[in-house]
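Handout, tutorial session.
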Amino acid sequence: MASRFDAPYLQWATTRAPARLDLAGSAVAACTVDELEGARDALELTGENTGAYVPLVGAISARYGVPEAGVTTAHGASGANFLVFAALLAPGDDVVVERPGYDALLGAPQILGARTIRFDRTFRDGFALDPDRVRRAITAETRLVVITTPHNPSGVVASRDALEEVGRIAEANGAHVLVDEVYLDAADSGMQGGSSVIRTAVASGEVFISTSSLTKSYGLTGLRCGWILSSPAIADRVRNVRRVIDVAGSIVTDRLAALAFRQIDRLTSRARTLLHANHALVRASLRARPELEFIEPRGSTVVFPRIRGVDDSRRFTERLLDERDTAVVPGRFFDAPAHFRIGLGGTTETVRLGLAAIVAALDAGAW
């Protein structure tokens, strides 16, 4: 029987009370219908997308420089990850997952009857990806190593050398590496030189499988458009799973997502302009507070500070919400209770006011 997993972060995120200043989310501020040019005219309810919507697959292929045979669409990045787990895992298999980390990447394998084994990305090492820790965690039953880059919750981008070494380790042990890149398009390191092509992990070899969506980096959460980039052989296995689950996505979503890709450079510019302004605010606010420690993210939509000498941020985050109507994510949901995650993708005014509330709470000794 498959294991049961409660996903405490997801439960909290989907049931928590709203806050006037919400810095708990990790997506770029939502696009309106009018900001996605042509969206109103694209809301036709019929069309052919059984198996795949060809214009969308072609757009993803071009954006990430992979063959169309290696592109599989999915219901958001979480849906993409689940399809990969379902395609590659069987009860009794092992999955090596980073810590701190996003709990859906633990829950989905456990639902399928796999065992999760953790390796650490530590504050002391700048949350860097350490291939030696991965090597020590792998077992003979390991079928997947799971990584996020930029890292959720710290926003740190894994180095190309570290990723490729993890790939060699996994391949030598008959495993694949699933890299959740849902924040990558917002990170400056995602671009290949002056090109508009995003360099994903899958470009480094068939041992890698990359997942992402239009959600976090582009402000298009409502579309729930996700995808998997892989070798054609893995893509065939993933598509077989999707046929059992839902066959195809919404034609409305697929058509609007293809429309978004036709104006992706403008959406990228929108996101990066917003994040550039918000990162400047965060640097100024957090650097000015000697009681805070943090690793500065490079272009990502989150940052993961901690208060010196405080082992659990729960009291601080609860008082911040109760007394200042400001939400951040307690670090306990990522197995790092001393920290709290701040989302940087909201409107600049929301981020500015939210940071001011955090500063006021620190001044008041709210921990």
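The second record follows below. Compare its token runs with those of the first.
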Amino acid sequence: MLPLLNAIYSHFTATLAVTFPSGLHRDQAPEGAAMPYVVSRIVSSKTELAYGPASRTTTQIKLSAFGIGHDATGALADQLTSAFDSTLLSLSSGTNDSVVRLGEPLPAIHSHDGQGNDVWEWAVVYEYGVVDT
């Protein structure tokens, strides 16, 4: 799974570093991270097929864009999905053979930031297929 997570990070860095200057964080952003940023979380992972040393794993990854303001963060989430939709990733081991976005990005309001601005999360889940031989 680590090769998939590293490939997501590499693709993000190459395509969205300017859009999300505080970067991509795994599971949780550091305390006080400036917005906007993205957090990735593993939703599920299961081996669908295994024969000898070969296997195929399906992993769902949730990408959450955090930012100030509903519409502004939604626009950033659109850029996030544009960068990841239908993009097969280059892995250090194994082959990413499928990617499917499971629905549209969904908004959720969180607490206010230090200046009293509304903090929004727009989250989307991708399902990646990886074949290891």
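Points raised in discussion: The chain has two helices and six strands.
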